[in-house]
Specification:
The structure is a single chain. The protein is mostly helical. The protein contains eleven helices and five strands. A hairpin with a 5-residue loop joins strand 2 and strand 3. The longest helix is centred in the first third of the chain and has 26 residues. It is elongated and about 80 Å long. The N terminus is likely disordered.
């Protein structure tokens, strides 16, 4: 995949926290553009504070319990503290679809620079480099880097090729009408396939006359006009979606 950016002015939405966010546009090998709404430093800082509170709560409970075991408990607590401080974000981001509890609470997710789920190596790298982002104090280096980067990435993200994005709201479920699938009869480009599937999903919400008008544009493909052409487009859309 290759990535390119688009300006947020005409796309940004969802409240003040996103006003300074930018969109990262990724073009898949199939030619489909993905728009990743990159998160700025404010929502990321809030998510970090939530995760900090969670870690403090976990360590407080462990300290109370392990304190009853004396010296053995202290040794176990040191190991647990290391795991909570360092392994907590890495394991959550890899195993929980790029989200820690703090990121989930703020509607954020870590993804690869190409939009793919984050893997173990990028997750480890981005968190190991927090030690650099923290310099000289209070994440000053990380904040400066994120403010200079158009996608709000700190140094760890730049090195690991990751980006923190807002989780898009769930899209309303749309279905192509249950028409038997039929082959298009000729090769179709990716954008043509996407247009036919989009027609199949949206046409049922249009007036019949408008459906016929749009389907008429593809009459050379369907070989039929009127509602028959509309039904044939539904069948081609279902075939493109792998339905029968």
């Amino acid at each position: 995949m290759t990535g390119r950016t688009s300006t947020p002015d005409a796309q940004a939405a969802g409240g003040p926290a996103r006003l300074l966010d930018t969109y990262r546009e990724v073009i898949t090998p199939e030619g489909v553009p993905l728009h990743l709404p990159a998160a700025g430093p404010v929502p990321r800082a809030l998510a970090w504070l939530v995760d900090l509170a969670v870690r403090i709560a976990i360590l407080s409970v462990l300290a109370t319990i392990l304190g009853l075991l004396g010296g053995l408990g202290q040794g176990i607590y040191l190991l647990a503290m290391f795991a909570v401080v360092w392994a907590y974000p890495i394991v959550f981001e890899v195993a929980w679809d790029g989200q820690t509890p703090g990121k989930r609470a703020l509607g954020l997710r870590v993804v690869g620079g190409d939009g793919a789920p984050v893997g173990w190596l990028p997750a480890i790298v981005r968190h190991l480099l927090r030690t650099v982002d923290m310099l000289p104090f209070a994440y000053a280096a990380g904040l400066a880097t994120s403010l200079c980067d158009r996608h709000g990435r700190r140094l760890g993200d730049l090195v690991a090729d990751t980006v923190v994005v807002h989780v898009p709201p769930p899209a309303s479920a749309t279905q192509v009408p249950a028409v038997p699938a039929r082959a298009a009869g000729q090769p179709l480009h990716a954008d043509e396939q996407a247009a036919i599937v989009a027609f199949g999903e949206r046409a049922p919400y249009l007036a019949p006359a408008r459906q016929v008008e749009l389907a008429g544009l593809l009459q050379p493909l369907t070989g039929a006009g009127g509602m028959e052409g509309v039904q044939r487009l539904y069948g081609i859309a279902n075939a493109l979606l792998g339905r029968r």
